[in-house]
Write a structure and sequence with these properties.
432 residues; alpha/beta; UDP-n-acetylglucosamine1-carboxyvinyl-transferase, Chain; 2 domains; four-stranded mixed β-sheet; 13 helices; globular; binds shikimate-3-phosphate; binds phosphoenolpyruvate; amino-acid biosynthesis
Length: 432
């Protein structure tokens, strides 16, 4: 069911705000998967609690792990024997539909996977083919997509596999995250157009090494995980830097200033690239010990960008481009047609409906800013479309966001944080 429409607030003055973001989806879901088969109890400190991570926690519980809330904010994960005869709801989460099957392959018995209607169109074919090569028995309807059933025998042979991961880096991360538990470990060769979202693979490799795995990523397009036990984790989850993007972008749109505390000095999160993007657009971007501050007193301009490594930033950057001075070209993101929705088509349609001149290319968008008029901004069950629409709404009073609740995929508190950033709650409090 769709949530009620939301008229996103316009900004009547430059924003000057500090916005603390919850934890990273990508880190939380990697840590959960690693913890579910580690050699002891793991603690995740301040993990993200959103639809994608709650689905991941529930998937792991159904496979026999215990994931418990402790001390308010943390998760304790106790591994269990991987059990079969389970049914997993992937929602629309790429991380659940890609990371859990290689783990479920070690169950004794059948594990059935399905998800939201659109999840059934997201690419899975190369991931299923790779698992079969590694010795896993899978029933599907031949479309290379959800739903499917994995018929585990309690162990996976593993070994060497060649995969075309040009549709998603998650195919590689998924095999790496479980490969240490396979009899022969796993060696993955990518063969195809360049793999997108490379920082996400680096994140996987770093998380595995932190858990004691022996990983070789020294050759391009080849990754090897040796078989062996993983250590339990005790990890602090960094704030989600991709979810920080719309808030930082709000500083540009309103010629204001936004600080995100806790911005890591070193990170593998692809969202860190937002610093370079905003800098190129003309913002002042300052990373200090206490956080990242972005300000843009003099406005901002369009850019020519390759977002292949940080493609999840595309919706917010495209919205920003529609409000910039001069045209923007976004390249290198053909694969985001397979994200939560066909993001290139959705952005061209919705920014176009507002009045922007947007052309879809084979691998991106050309955006020429024009005067925009308010309209209903459709979100296609895509959390990042909600964020993109809200950004436009700052500058175009009266933009109505359809189904804002879909933002709960990664940031259930988005509309509250957005209002807080604009000072609305303070204003409401005064008038009450
Ligand atoms: O591994 C991950 O956590 C992710 C990898 C990327 O997927 P793609 O490689 O499919 O773009 C990214 O876009 C997604 O939001 C999260
Ligand atoms: C592409 C995204 O998510 P997923 O993990 O479902 O692929 C995203 O968060 O932008």
């Amino acid at each position: 069911m769709l949530s009620a429409d939301w008229t996103s607030p316009a900004a009547d003055r430059p924003i000057d705000a500090t916005v603390a973001l919850p934890g990273s989806k990508s880190l939380t879901n990697r840590f959960l998967v690693l913890a579910a088969r580690a050699g002891g109890v793991s603690r995740l400190r301040a993990p993200l609690r959103s639809r994608d991570t709650l689905l991941m926690a529930e998937a792991l519980r159904r496979l026999g792990a215990h994931v418990e809330d402790v001390d308010g904010d943390d998760w304790l994960v106790t591994p269990g024997e991987i059990s079969g005869e389970a049914s997993i709801d992937c929602g629309l989460a790429g991380t659940v539909m890609r990371f859990v099957p290689p783990l479920a392959a070690m169950a004794r018995g059948a594990v059935h996977f399905d998800g939201d209607p659109h999840a059934r169109t997201r690419p899975m074919g190369p991931a299923l083919a790779a698992l079969r090569t590694l010795g896993v028995d899978i029933d599907d309807d031949g479309r290379g997509a959800l739903p499917f059933t994995i018929r585990g025998t309690g162990r996976v042979r593993g070994g060497s596999v060649t995969i075309d991961a040009s549709a998603s880096s998650q195919f590689i991360s998924a095999l790496l995250l479980s490969g240490a538990h396979y009899d022969d470990g796993v060696t993955i060769h990518h063969d195809g157009k360049p793999v997108p979202s490379q920082p996400h693979i680096e994140m996987t490799v770093e998380a595995l090494r932190d858990a004691g795995a022996d990983v070789d990523d020294s050759d391009a397009n080849t990754w090897r995980v040796e078989p062996g036990p993983l250590n339990p984790l005790d990890v602090q989850v960094e704030p989600d830097l991709s979810n920080a993007a719309p808030f930082l972008a709000a500083a540009l749109v309103t010629k204001g200033r936004v600080t995100v505390p806790g911005w890591p000095q070193h990170t593998t999160q692809a969202g860190d690239d937002i610093r370079d993007v905003l800098d190129e657009m003309g913002a002042d971007v300052h990373l200090a010990r206490d956080g990242l501050t972005v300000s843009a007193p003099d406005g901002f301009s369009g850019v020519d960008l390759d977002l292949h490594d940080a493609s999840e930033l595309t919706p917010v950057v495209a919205a920003l481009a529609a409000l910039a001075e001069g045209p923007t070209i976004i390249r290198g993101v053909a694969h985001i047609r397979g994200h939560e929705t066909d993001r290139l088509a959705a952005l061209a349609q919705e920014l176009g409906a507002l009045g922007a001149d947007v052309t879809e290319t084979e691998d991106g968008l050309h955006i020429i800013p024009r005067p925009l008029s308010p309209t209903v901004f459709h979100t296609y069950a895509d959390h990042r479309m909600v964020m993109a629409g809200a950004l436009i709404g700052l500058a175009v009073p009266g933009v109505v966001i359809e189904d804002p609740g879909t933002v709960a995929k990664t940031l259930p508190t988005f509309t509250r944080l957005w209002a807080d950033m604009l000072g609305e709650r303070a204003a409401e409090g005064r008038s009450a």
